[in-house]
Amino acid sequence: MHIADINIEARKLVDADSTSYSDADLLRRVNIAYEEIISKLIALNKNWSFGDSNFTSLPTGLSNLTAGTREYQFTAGWLTINSVQILDDEGVWHKLKRVSLKDIEPITEYCKTDGQPTEYAVREDFLLLFPTPASADVTLANGLKLDCQRTADLFTSAQVTTGTKTPGFASPFHILLAYKAALPYAMAYNPARVNFIMAEIIRIEKELLTFYAGRERDTKTIIKTKEITFR
After folding, report:
1. In this prediction, what percent of the chain has a pLDDT beyond 90?
2. Is the same domain home to 47 and 157?
């Protein structure tokens, strides 16, 4: 479904129009629902990295390193970090090991000498490198590479006007956005529709998650026997 169709359906579900349910309110609620759906799909399967199909590039980002700097803020909208790599002074990428901050406190005393980072930790939306980069050991220009998972490619008001963009997940379940966007309006102005809308959200979302849970059919399950020790 195109965003125009989703908006029409959301309003139809609650007997609203563009005056009673404004474009701005509807856009906000569609995007909230969109991010919620994408987050559930990302969390669903650890073996297969879901990504919004509207993105035209892989979720890999390059950033400059600064000698002696430990903290690097990553891009808003990146939900999880899959891997971090550092480019050494000879142009070779090295994957870093993730560590927990609680295991290395105090941070100021851990890996105090600058060099080639071998480990990283995450705090809020900051990446921390250990040890801090030394210009003699790393390539500073675009020397930090992150492989991440992103949130949804959210709709903009301009795209609503055009009306042709579609959500970046399987088309049979696009209608879920309409139901999720209709629910808050129904709760406030059309309570008689609430139970029906909630039931449809539960039904469609369950089918969506079941569908994506089966996307790894090309991965074989290997059954191994366990050795039994008799005493």
Report:
1. 65
2. yes
Burial (0-12, 13-18, 19+ Cβ within 10 Å), 144: buried
Please check whether residue 221 lies inside any domain of the structure.
Answer: no
Range of the domain at 203: 3-52+153-213
In terms of C-beta density within 10 A (0-12 exposed, 13-18 middle, 19 or more buried), how is residue 179 classed?
Answer: buried
Total number of domains constituting the chain: 2
Q: What is the pLDDT of residue 51?
A: 79
* Mean pLDDT in residue range 204-223: 72
Give CA–CA dist 204/200, Å, rounded: 6
Q: Model confidence over 144-167: pLDDT tens digits?
A: 998 887 888 899 999 999 999 999
Amino acid at 66: T
Q: H or E stretch including 56?
A: none
Instruction: Let me know if residue 165 belongs to a domain.
Output: yes
pLDDT at residue number 48: 56
Answer whether 138's CB lies under 8 Å from 117's CB.
yes
